[in-house]
Amino acid sequence: MGMGLAKRKLILPLVFILIIISLLRVLKLTLISSSFSSPRLVLTTFNHEPFMLPPPIPLNPIRKEKLSKKEFRFLSDILLKKSPCNVLVFGLEEEYLKLEIINTGGSTVFLENRPERLMKVEGGYNARRVYKTEYKTYAKDAYKLLKYARSNSSCDPSLGIKSIMTECKLALTGLPKEVLKTKWDIIIVDGPCGEGPDSPGRMGSVFMAGVLARAGNGTNVIVHDVDRMIEKWFSWEFLGEENRVSSKGRFWNFRIPQQVKNSSRNSALGK
Question: Are 41 and 56 in contact (CB under 8 A)?
């Protein structure tokens, strides 16, 4: 009886000690995890609206879905309101080739970087007004490029194409004169794919869409995959949340007012 009672007395302290050890382990793991987590930075856009940027940039999800029926109808409705008109498309997804039919009598130009896509274009890509485009920036550098653009006055989208093309790292060099000189009514950004850190991201295409749109007469810029961080960040930055007029699915539709010549950055953004 005495030994049994002694064992029972020892069990309770032992259980208590094991619980304390477990709690200390959990606390240690929590402290280690927090010490390696990156701080979240609060930055402001060109129009001074704050939003959170968590470095490092998260990996974009690989897109397996094509445009949904609702998304394509949304895109078609915007085009039908302006057709025939000038349409520029970053990307050469199969669905976008249908836009040529909707925009009969207008001009539809595609910019594509993937050789496999260019080879599939019926009659050769030059026959369809498709231009091969090179992107020299990568998705993994998006955060650094955004901070660079904010601190570099040459990346002000209100400066005009000539100044930006010679100074800003985000500018897409090598674009044909037709693309740079045309006043676009609609610009669609769905390229490059931007599906991994080492693939070309859409930083340059969203930026150039903003620059080209400011040279137009009230240009609609429609950005796809806005569920991804790069597309969100750069759309907020260079297209302006105040210019977003509608959305559907993974599309955001911005209406960019015509840029007044010799205006400052603030006046360009409606300040």
Answer: no
Can you list the alpha helix ranges (DSSP code H) found in 37-93?
Answer: 69-82
Local structure of 1: helix, strand or coil: coil
* CB proximity list for 31: less than 8 A, separation 6 or greater: none
Q: Convert the pLDDT of each residue in 18-29 to its tens digit.
A: 677 666 665 554
Q: Where are the domains of the chain?
A: 60-268
**Rounded-to-integer distance, Cα 116 and Cα 188, Å:** 21
The closest alpha carbon to 92, from 126, 121, 69, 63, belongs to: 121
What 3-state class would DSSP assign to 115? helix
The correct CATH number of 60-268 out of 2.60.40, 3.30.2010, 3.40.50, 1.20.120 is 3.40.50
Task: Let me know if 7 is exposed, middle or buried by CB neighbors in 10 A (0-12, 13-18, 19+).
Answer: exposed
pTM over 0.90, yes/no: no
pLDDT in tens, 253-264: 999 998 755 443
CA distance 36 to 131: 44
